[in-house]
Amino acid sequence: MRSEFRTFKRGVYPKEFKITSRKKIEILPLPSRLVLSLKQHIGCNSVPIVKVGDLVKKYQKIADIGGKVCSTLHSPTSGKVVAIESAPYPVDVCDAIIIEPDNKEESIIFKKNDYKSLTREEIIEIIKEAGIVGMGGATFPTHIKIDNPDKNPEFLIINGCECEPYLTSDHRLMLEYPEELIIGCRILLKATKAKRCIIGIEDNKKDAYKLLKNILKNESHIIVRLVKTKYPQGAEKLLIYALTKREVPIGKLPIDVSCIVQNVGTAKAVYDAVSLGKPLVERIVTISGDVNNPRNVLCPIGATYKDLVDFSKGTKGEVNKIITGGPMMGISQKNLDVPIIKGTNGVIVWTNPLTNNDYSHCIRCGKCIDVCPYNLMPTQLAKYSAMGKYAISEDYHLFACMECGCCSYVCPSKIPLVQFIRLAKSELNRRRKK
Length: 434
Ligand code: SF4
Ligand code: SF4
Fold this sequence. Notes:
Elements (H helix, E strand, L loop, with lengths): L24 E3 L6 E4 L9 E2 L6 E2 L4 E4 L8 E2 L4 E10 L4 E9 L18 H10 L12 H4 L9 E6 L8 H8 L1 H15 L3 E7 L3 H10 L6 E6 L8 H9 L14 E5 H11 L7 E8 L5 E6 L4 H7 L9 E4 L6 E3 L12 E5 L16 H5 L6 H9 L3 H6 L10 H5 L6 H17 L1
Parallel strand pairs: 1-14, 9-10, 9-12, 10-11, 13-17
Antiparallel strand pairs: 2-8, 3-5, 4-7, 5-6, 7-8, 13-14, 15-16, 15-17
Helix pairs in contact: 1-4, 3-5, 4-7, 10-13
């Protein structure tokens, strides 16, 4: 077993396939039905505060915080609550509030703010009420992540890496909302009491880097830096290392090395909430792969993948694979009925014939170990998981694995290493809950 936990220098270089990077954000026409999952975030479900038959307005709160790690939920449009029931969800199923829009877009009146006149506590409360969660895919409620009153971080790091192949939603956000993003950074600086903010962007997005650098030329507290394009550069611990050379040890959090990381989409959502008074009801999603018109789309939360595919002029053939998120860390979906949630940054649809999923035995080449950004031993983790010896895999730092997929990507025997790792984690978690 290797006890060292260093480097963060590894990773892989998959083909980028960022075919939508030059496509401007387009607005999805309002679907006829919105499926608003009560779990938009890590933690427990939010609790409905509307009932079937209620008429709701755009931006109205429809579900409240239901536990310590939780978030609020708002209606993306005006309409009628037609059901509160179990519905498809990116992982399994989840209770959801179903709204049929009335196409009137009647909105509640919301309060704009000058963030400079707000206290740190007031900003955090607005972010909490607006239902903001990490929009890079992690979906941790933002008001909890930024509320560290006893640990003022030195660095607020804004993640503009978007290292997954295919995805371009963050790239377009940086190009099309740069001012809003930067105000979001200023608000987050005030809320976190961080000394400085660094926006980290991979060097395959130099247009966004130059644009932000130009806007920030007279700014002393916010800088923008290019980092090398590799996968998974956008993983929190790797980005912290790339920008500050600080290593977050196993079992520790970024705040333990005086850093806090937020995604560019989260910073923009913070601007919308604090400056404009708008809760989080929509997000940018890249729809790509074998659709006829891959694009970046501003979607209401609760639109389905089918709404996105239809807006992209359908697919080039029969759908064989659907992924939510990017192809490296994304999750396979059974069908297109799954709704967009706050963390959905991409939907990739493939029509190619399914590849052979058979795998062969480990040839001990060590490639998986060479690429693991956290210096783990994926081959051992998978071996003990396959044997059902889940507890032993914990000795190999099972829970430090961020499931980035680099090991599976390089394995010449095509062993589904990440799936074995996920199996061991879920089995151990299940046993602990008993
Ligand atoms: S999935 Fe886990 S074990 Fe595999 S390379 Fe990524 S961090 Fe390492
Ligand atoms: S990359 Fe695959 S074949 Fe090579 S050591 Fe790792 S698990 Fe074994």
